[in-house]
UniProtKB/TrEMBL annotation:
Record family assignment: Belongs to the ABC transporter superfamily.
Name of the protein this chain belongs to: Dipeptide/oligopeptide/nickel ABC transporter ATP-binding protein
InterPro entries (alphabetical): AAA+_ATPase (IPR003593), ABC_transp_ATP-bind (IPR050319), ABC_transporter-like_ATP-bd (IPR003439), ABC_transporter-like_CS (IPR017871), Oligopep_ABC_C (IPR013563), P-loop_NTPase (IPR027417)
Transmembrane segments: none
Organism: Sinosporangium siamense
Record CDD domains: ABC_NikE_OppD_transporters
One GO process term, biological-process aspect: transmembrane transport
The entry's keywords: ATP-binding, Nucleotide-binding, Transport
GO terms assigned for molecular function: ATP binding; ATP hydrolysis activity
Span of domain ABC transporter: 6-247
């Protein structure tokens, strides 16, 4: 069996005495795609934040690429090495980019930090990454405000990939996008995995999305894992009543997305 690239063992997190994550263990193989699913508040994001180091585990162990990361990095060098192992893309493509920076500059910044490429090498790599996520030269050189939500999320993905991570965590990364744009970004992600061999950890409440992208699933409820297994097995023959319940909230064939409220309607 291939050794895991990410191993999470007995992870716990309490916030002021309230348990957010309790005894969570799972592993991710190189190039695999694992989804962590569960309804809002089940502890998914807290698990992701502990893995990238934004939150400190109350107990448990996290090992990525053979290095322990249960404790904060001890040096700038260690922090940078961790960035080269795991990157994360968040839900909101509107707030995750610097509004004053073009995508090309944003990607270049990460290349400067994580690679030894010279200016010409970085320019080539920016073009390669743009190509990988399906953005053209014009889109790479405007400000984020001139891009659509889906295009911005592609920029966020290109930027994360610039660090050449072995693991990419996608925390509800397509949840804010319209269904057709969602499908485009999911295709981009599938292509990226095929071409680069990066492993994905998907955090999602959306089982329809998960079915498209993940090989395996863990289902969380109230901070704990209640079910796990290959995607098709868990979704088609859920054993735990909670997974069955989650499944019934997924639209079936013929379902149409509800029309989104316009800004005027929500103001
Ligand atoms: N910084 C924090 N301080 C206090 N409580 C927190 C903090 N972060 C998360 N929690 C609590 O931990 C629990 C798990 O939250 P978490 O965000 O991990 O769930 P989730 O499954 O990712 O939900 P969502 O999909 O809504 O983000 C919740 O009860 C939440 O209120």
């Amino acid at each position: 069996m291939t050794e895991a690239i990410l191993e999470v063992e007995g992870l716990h997190k309490t916030f002021k005495g309230a348990v957010a994550v309790a005894d969570v263990s799972f592993s991710l193989r190189p190039g695999a795609a694992l989804a962590v699913v569960g309804e809002s508040g089940s502890g998914k994001t807290t698990v992701a934040r502990m893995i990238v180091g934004l939150e400190r585990p109350t107990a448990g162990r996290i090992t990525a690429c053979g290095h322990d990361r249960s404790h904060p990095p001890r040096s700038v060098r260690e922090r940078r090495r961790r960035g080269g192992e795991i990157q994360i893309v968040f839900q909101d493509p509107y707030s995750s980019l610097d509004p004053r920076q073009s995508p090309a500059t944003a990607v270049d910044e990460i290349l400067r930090l994580h690679t030894r490429l010279d200016a010409a090498g970085r320019r080539r790599r920016v073009a390669e990454l743009a190509d990988l996520v399906g953005l053209d030269e014009r889109q790479m050189n405007v400000l984020p405000s001139e891009l659509s939500g889906g295009q911005r999320q592609r920029v966020a993905i290109a930027r994360a990939l610039a660090a050449e991570p072995q693991i990419l965590i996608l925390d509800e990364s397509v949840a804010a996008l319209d269904v057709s744009i969602q499908a485009q970004v999911l295709n981009v992600l599938a292509g990226v995995r095929e071409r680069t061999g990066v492993a994905y950890l998907f955090i999602s409440h959306d089982l329809a999305v998960v079915r498209q992208v993940a090989d395996e699933i863990v289902v969380m409820r109230g901070g704990s894992i209640v079910e796990r297994g290959p995607t098709a097995q868990v979704l088609d023959n859920p054993r735990h009543p909670y997974t069955r319940l989650l499944r019934t909230s997924v639209p079936g064939p013929g379902w149409r997305p509800a029309r989104r409220a316009t800004r005027k309607e929500t103001q």
